[in-house]
Specification:
The protein is built from 10 helices and 6 strands. By secondary structure, it is an alpha/beta fold. The protein has 2 domains: about 150 residues, HAD superfamily/HAD-like (Rossmann fold), CATH 3.40.50.1000; about 60 residues, DNA polymerase, domain 1 (Orthogonal Bundle), CATH 1.10.150. The chain has a 6-stranded parallel beta sheet with strand order 3-2-1-4-5-6, with helices on both faces. Helix 1 crosses helix 4 and helix 3 crosses helix 4. It is globular.
Length: about 220
């Protein structure tokens, strides 16, 4: 029996693009700007995917940390890198080919990310991916992960039901958002959270490579959900 799954929603940072070095650099700038000791990159990786202000608040762990000033400093640093041609957000190997195959097939594609809409659109345009996606959901237009609102908006925009949707991401926040939305949660092992954490957060499967992800999605169509 053919699967009814038709909407594949991707996280961005850590799933489509490897932005950890850019994120860590901007986070360091934000902390230095207000005179705080920057967090270790291992700690930064744990909050990738959350809305920026929430991520900074968790990392600062200080009662009177000036979160709005730090958010602004982070954003300025990010824009400086982007406009200076120094922003490093490479696609993970095989991602373009995967998206091309899905887009030309019978999949509807979306993104749900902790990025702002401006940041997401710039990333997709840089990699010439902006024509692949039918719905874009960001933390400045909806409640952030793990709240299900971004997935709810994505399904509403594409006339998909939870049974017809799969959320693909690299963090526990992605998996928890999928569970909260009643959507299949699919983890990827090349991002920022460990596979065992993804499974504990609700992933039905964690794929090791982009090629494995393509095979998994093809199997959804061939074997049924």
């Amino acid at each position: 029996m053919a699967s009814t799954v038709k909407l594949a929603v991707f996280d961005c940072d850590g799933t489509l693009v490897d932005s950890q070095h850019a994120i860590n650099s901007c986070m360091t700038d934000a902390f230095v700007h207000v005179g705080l000791v920057p967090p270790a990159i291992s700690h930064v990786r744990r909050v990738v995917g959350l809305p920026l202000a929430q991520a900074i608040e968790i990392l600062a762990d200080a009662e009177n940390a000036p979160i709005p000033d730090m958010v602004e400093a982070y954003s300025i640093s990010w824009q400086r890198m982007r406009h200076g041609g120094k922003l490093d957000e490479p696609l993970f190997d095989g991602t373009r080919e995967l998206l091309t195959g899905l887009h030309t097939g019978d999949w509807t594609l979306g993104v749900a990310t902790g990025k702002s809409m401006r940041g997401l659109e710039a990333t997709l345009a840089h990699h010439a991916l902006d024509g692949f996606f039918s719905t874009l959901q960001t933390a400045d237009r909806a409640r952030g992960k793990p709240h299900p609102e971004m997935l709810e908006f994505a399904m509403a925009e594409t006339a998909a039901t939870p049974d017809e949707t799969v959320m693909i991401g690299d963090t526990t926040y992605d998996m928890e958002m999928a569970v909260n939305a009643g959507v299949r949660a699919l983890g990827v092992a090349w991002g920022y959270h460990a596979p065992e954490d993804l499974r504990a957060a609700g992933a039905v499967e964690v794929v090791e490579t982009v090629a494995d992800l393509g095979r998994y999605l093809r199997n959804l169509k061939e074997q049924g959900s």
